[in-house]
Amino acid sequence: MPERERYDLGTPFLRLEREGHLAWCTIDRPGSRNALSGAMYFGLKRAVQLVNAMEEPTALLVTGVGDVFAPGGELRGRVEDANPVVEQLGVGDVLPFEALRQSVAPVVSAVNGICQGGGLLVAMLSDVAVASERASFRAPELLRGIADTGYAAYLPAHVGVAHARDLLLTGRTLDAGEALRMGLVSRVVPHERLREEAVAAAESILRTAPEARLHVKRILHERYGQVDRMTMDWALFRGAEAREGMRAFAEKRPPSWVPEALRRGTRA
Question: Does the reported pTM lie above 0.90?
């Protein structure tokens, strides 16, 4: 049996462990329900880079702990893994999404539970997303005042414009069955077989020719729209609605823009 190798991703809340041709990146921040800090987003990007640099062809598998895959970014202001290097970088340099879609090494997401926000983008931009029957999916950014231009560019290519409008403008939650029917993920499996099926998907991709695979992936990804990073940077960090949305989330209340008649005292 090959020896297990471990890699530092710059945050205690991500584990990258490799055995032979498989490397597992586990999102492990249960105290914050796996919310992704800036250092964790950057760590996911680093995991992609490390696996692509390995001499032996290796697949990257991403999963979470407990009943959560990843709910998206940390909105409550809790910083437990501050990284001064990451703090000086722009959004485009920190986020892992372009690295995921451009990876020569196979990337498979094993979606074990709640999958929202940036976590859903990780799953969508993996080569294959294998979801547990217990998984749920949501794109809640507009509920938080965040104009996520990445979603606006990526989601229509995945599920069509009508479904993309529905998901982005309502922020509703899908179960695994509806996500599969919509094309948000490609496989749903019994929960107890999730890791086994994710490994099978990764090993299937490893049997294909890397250079030819990269050409096919590039053509497939041309269907994505252009991500407007300038708007994303402004809306995420400087926009008044995003600041109010994050405060409301942290305070467990509806944001100020919600009509009085629709307020129920708790956040959506």
Answer: yes
What domain range is 88 assigned to?
4-192+202-221
253 in any annotated domain? no
Write out 26-49 in H/E/C secondary structure. EECCHHHCCCECHHHHHHHHHHHH
**pLDDT tens digits in sequence order for the chain, 268 residues long:** 567 899 999 999 999 999 999 999 999 999 999 999 989 999 999 999 999 999 999 999 999 999 999 999 888 777 788 777 777 776 668 889 999 999 999 999 999 999 999 999 999 999 999 999 999 999 999 999 988 888 999 999 999 999 999 999 999 999 999 999 999 999 999 999 999 999 999 999 999 999 999 999 999 988 887 787 777 777 666 788 888 988 998 898 999 999 988 887 677 7
Residue 250 included in any domain: no
Q: How far from each other are the two terminal CA atoms of the chain, in whole angstroms?
A: 48
The answer to whether position 75 is within a domain reads yes
Report how many domains make up the chain.
1
Q: What is the DSSP letter of 208?
A: S
Strand 22-27, strand 14-19: pairing: antiparallel
Q: What is the CATH number of the domain that holds 159?
A: 3.90.226.10
Helices (H), the chain: 38-53, 84-87, 91-94, 97-102, 117-125, 149-159, 161-170, 176-182, 194-206, 210-221, 229-237, 240-251
Q: Are strands 107-111 and 128-132 parallel, antiparallel or unpaired?
A: parallel
